[in-house]
Amino acid sequence: MRSYDSSNIFARILRGEIPSPRVHDGRHAVAIKDIHPQAPTHLLVLPTGNYVDFDDFAARASDEEIVAYVRAIGSIAREAKVADSGYRVIFNVGPDSHQEVPHLHAHILGGRALGPLLKKIDE
User: Where is the motif named Histidine triad motif mapped on this chain (predicted)?
Assistant: First the structure.
């Protein structure tokens, strides 16, 4: 497991060192707009605790943190008005998934038809 780097950009946003307007600000989860959106709605949901990725979060977060974070993702999708038409939640974990920031974050993408998740292996 990789160790947590408290100088990562999301940790700095959570501490208020880097300004980033919050679309959700809760005790266990904060949501911000992605600066390079891949869909009309592209939000990042950050847990407020120091977790490198989903594996780290699943292993170390308290039940209270896990429940609050998962519920926040659903609530944020509803507030963003993508719940009825559909949305995708993506967690990138580690280098093969192209995780760019070593702080757990969920991508909520919606606002249009997103197409297939991945190309088939035989293509």
Answer: 103-107
- The per-residue pLDDT for 117 is 82
* Residues 70 and 77 sit within 8 Å (Cβ to Cβ): no
Indicate which CATH number applies to the domain containing 44: 3.30.428.10
Tokens in use for 77? 């999708």
Catalytic hit among 28, 42, 105, 107: 105
Does residue 105 carry a catalytic annotation? yes
Residue 115 within a domain: no
- Tally of CA atoms within 13 A in the half-sphere of 122 that contains its CB: 0
Segment 17-31 shows an average pLDDT of 97
Tokens 């197409």: give the residue.
Answer: 115
Domains contained in the chain, number: 1
* Cβ proximity of 11 and 33 under 8 Å: no
Instruction: Look at residue 85 and tell me if it is in a domain.
Output: yes
Nearest CA among 86, 108, 100, 98 for reference residue 30: 108
